[in-house]
Design a protein that fits this description.
This protein is an all-alpha fold. It has a domain at about 50-185: Orthogonal Bundle (Globin-like), CATH 1.10.490. About 45% of the residues lie in helices and about 0% in strands. The longest helix has 22 residues, at about 45-65. The protein is globular and about 45 Å long. It comes from Noctiluca scintillans (Sea sparkle). GO terms for molecular function: heme binding; metal ion binding; oxygen binding; oxygen carrier activity.
Length: about 240
């Protein structure tokens, strides 16, 4: 059965895919944009399974939490000073669709992201900001997203994408990537139990100690390994 959404290259897809392969040390992967019925799923194939609406739903949940963050108002202000909630949902949705094989949605690709991070978001491009970003994304994915009808490979694939990007940003902005920011995302997608994220005191580091290593889970497995037991047809 074919995947429900037609995929095509975006402005960011090829560069993001190449970065993933370089970081994972793996070039022997399926570079096609449409997900196969079984086997590993890669982030550049996510659009073919999810489409735009489900991607936007995740990001709306995420930014709703960001804009309601009264515990760390410095983090909320970093976004509200740039635009309203809908502005950020639209821009991030465009980037995810573009990177996930949904066609040219995010004009400028990584170059545009780099300019934004350097000139508009530099004050949160550090370990503290990354930790708070992942705090809200963890809640959005674990508590606000219904995975019951989703291909079971999608969530671990999305988590791998987020970790790969966060490692990239940590290397570019010279903070120490903290793999523990992802601990509560490494659960079975069907586990809908409430998520409790403990507060963390992040500090920036002058030189990242393990940025650029192949993303893996604390038990030594990767998201591709996790997907081997979570295979289903496109639906």
């Amino acid at each position: 059965m074919s995947c429900p959404f037609k995929a095509c290259l975006g402005h960011s897809t090829a560069d993001a895919r190449q970065h993933w392969m370089d970081m994972h040390g793996n070039t022997d992967v399926d570079e096609s944009l449409s997900a196969k019925p079984d086997g590993p799923l890669f982030f550049w194939q996510l659009y073919s399974l999810m489409g735009a609406e489900r991607i936007e739903r995740i990001l709306h949940a995420f930014y709703t939490r960001v804009y309601a963050d009264n515990e760390e108002p410095w983090f909320r202000r970093a976004f509200s000073q740039i635009g309203d909630l809908e502005h950020h949902v639209e821009r991030q949705t465009e980037f995810w669709i573009d990177a996930f094989g949904g066609g040219p949605q995010y004009h400028g690709g990584d170059g545009r992201i780099n300019i934004h991070h350097q000139h508009r978001a530099a004050h949160i491009m550090n370990a503290r900001g990354a930790g708070r970003w992942m705090y809200h994304m963890t809640l959005a994915l674990n508590d606000d997203t219904d995975w019951s009808e989703e291909d079971p490979r999608v969530k671990p694939c999305l988590v791998d994408f987020l970790e790969t990007r966060m490692r990239k940003y940590a290397a570019a902005h010279r903070w120490e990537f903290d793999a523990h920011d992802f601990d509560l995302l490494r659960v079975e997608f069907a586990d809908n139990s409430p998520t409790v994220v403990p507060p963390k005191d992040h500090s920036t580091a002058a030189t990242p100690s393990h940025v650029g290593s192949s993303p893996s889970f604390d038990d030594g497995t990767s998201s591709v390994d996790e997907q081997k037991n979570a295979q289903s047809v496109c639906h």
